[in-house]
Design brief:
The protein is mostly helical. Helices cover about 55% and strands about 0% of the residues. The chain contains five helices and no strands. α2 packs across α3. The radius of gyration is 13 Å and the shape is globular. This is DUF2316 family protein. InterPro entries: DUF2316.
Amino acid sequence: MSLNPQQMRATREELQANFALTGLTKTQVATDLNISVTKLDRLFDLTQQSLEDPWILRNYLIDQVEAAGKTPVPFTALSGDWHRHWFLNSAVIDRREMSAGNR
């Protein structure tokens, strides 16, 4: 599934807004997800090649925002149950298994 330019812009903004709500640094998020800050930046910019990685970041951010006692900013394109999207490997998302490398 490809996102159109409007969906890309909205998703970038939603990721950033939820990141801000966590109160965490990029280094903390990257460490928690066992990825580099470079890869995290690619995820925030939606230039990461893996389709599952943005969903993993999304789920992580939602969990962190809720753990901080706040309400997450809703996602418009990355919404619903990822198990229902045929093009996603839901088991990888469930395990929070980021793709290898910075691509």
